[in-house]
Amino acid sequence: MAIGVRVERDWSHSRKDVDPRRRTDVADLRFRALLTEADWQRLPFDVRRRFTKRLTDGTTAVYRGLVVEMTMSRAGYALAQLARLIGAPLPLSRDVGVAAVVTVTEDGRHGGQVWTRLYARRRRLPQMIHSRKRFSGDTGLEEHVGGGIGMSLVLTATDTALIFTSHRYFLAVGRRRLHLPAWLSPGRMMLAHTEIDATRFAFTLDLSHPWLGSLIHQRVVFEESPT
Q1: Which among 144, 163, 151, 140 is positioned nearest to 187, based on CA atoms?
Q2: DSSP states of 182-219 as a string?
Q3: Pairwise CA distance, residues 223 & 206, whole Å
Q4: What is the pLDDT of residue 9?
């Protein structure tokens, strides 16, 4: 399956000179500060609401879903298996029609968020994926998985979706970032949070490589749960 959307962005002209971590009022403005006001207002109201939800004082956002699309090339499968060495941050199963649960909590230690994804599998125990989003780095947003591996992300907006696109992969050594050369990169990662209605959204993961083409494509439809 080919990936039909590629996003390019000149970050230097769009990042706002705001430190949202200083805000202590009702909304969490950290994601909003990574977009221009015009781009933020393009998003559907309920996407904006989810990404300004405060998760302090032990609050957890919970989303229950169903995997509706899942394709993985042989190279993608091999990459997902190899990534088990750093905690299996990529889907391991091609199963569709199985349950998924995502929880989001505040990461008080690093000033970001912890995202936990649970994917059911028909013949094995569910797979659990942990990652941390930190509001730092050259783009203002990083996602950290296991073994010190992470990627900087660029945030863009459309009329229906908030899109996270990989910028550079790195190995974190303390506060230093050792950027991986292009030939070691697994390819371009694109994650999209697309509005369906007031309580449902689609999460889409696309990983594509310049030489190997589409490696992994996953689409999950989620529904908000009471918190």
Answers
A1: 151
A2: GGG---EEEEEEEE-SSSEEEEEEEEEETTTEEEEEEE
A3: 21
A4: 38
Nearest to 189 by CA among 80, 40, 112, 81: 80
pLDDT of 165 strictly over 80: yes
Distance of CA 211 to the CA centre of its chain: 23
Report how far residue 194's alpha carbon sits from residue 58's, in angstroms, rounded to the nearest whole number: 26
| Strand, coil or helix: 224 | strand
pLDDT of amino acid 59:
84
Coil, helix or strand for 30?
A: coil
Per-residue pLDDT tens for 15-53? 444 444 444 446 899 999 999 999 999 999 999 999 999
Residues in the chain: 227
pTM equals: 0.85
Radius of gyration of the chain (CA): 17
Q: What distance in Å separates the CA atoms of residue 165 and residue 40, rounded to the nearest whole number?
A: 16
Q: Residue 61's closest CA among 107, 102, 111? A: 102
What is the biggest distance separating any 2 CA atoms in the chain, rounded to whole angstroms?
49
Q: Residue 83, Cβ neighbours under 10 Å: how many?
A: 18
CA distance 150 to 179: 10
pLDDT tens, residue by residue, 96-114: 999 999 999 998 777 899 9
